[in-house]
Amino acid sequence: AAAAAAAASSAALTSAAAAAPAQPAVLPLVCPRYTQDALKQIEGFAVNLCKTQLSRPPKPNQAENVKGMAAAMTECSHYMEIRNIAVKTAQRWLNTPANATLAADLLTSVASRCGESHDMEYDTVVSLLKLKFRPKAAPSLLRTHADAVEAALKRNPLYYNVALQFLVRNEALPVVPESASQKPGVFLQIIFRDCGSKAAETMAAIFQDILAQPNPAAPNPAAPA
Question: How far is 116 from 12, CA to CA, in rounded Å?
Fold first, then answer.
């Protein structure tokens, strides 16, 4: 009897809920002002404006202008296009003692926001690896650079392959200037520490690809005399 009463009560509640009028949808308190397409257009306009302004080198002897550019790039470094410009701009400042700290902070910000699987982002990673320093650069500056590279690589597993490709094909070969302060071994240690055997396999594949390519400087024995 108790079970029958419970079933009847449950059925009554269900029918009552079904008969209740549907509640109106709750509208957001603040309606979006722009559509998604409009927001993308506005964002594209803002990025292009930043690119135009930041691509212009500051006038000489204007420290405040350099500080303003560094602050703007740091603030906008969540945009992939700005990250790409920022790393290449930092190269101009790294070897100027008055601007070296600004450049180091900018590199740290850029590295922490990388992560896109895009050719432009790969170029940013390579530009980060290619940074050169004066022969007597401060050890702290070199350490900041190595830390920035490590932070960027950890943002996307594909970056390790990009870095290995660049280091083996361009830097591990005898084309590094003698004055380069940051040696390729610094970055190879980071990659092998993070990737282990996968890094060794990737490097072996890169070397095999290099050896398989014909050397245009070597004479071809099959060519007619």
Answer: 56
Place of tokens 């530009």: 127
For residue 120 the two structure tokens come to: 């432009």
Q: Read off the DSSP letter of residue 194.
A: H
Residue 81, amino acid? E
At 83-101, the pLDDT tens digits run: 998 998 888 888 888 888 8
119-130 vs 100-113: helix crossing angle, rounded to 10 = 140
Which region holds residue 180: left if phi is over 0, alpha if psi is between -120 and 50, else beta? beta
Cα(82)–Cα(73) distance, integer angstroms: 7
Instruction: Flag whether pLDDT at 190 surpasses 50.
Output: yes
DSSP 8-state symbol, 182: S
Two structure tokens written together for 64: 């405040």
The candidate with the shortest Cα–Cα distance to 168, out of 118, 124, 126, 216, is 126
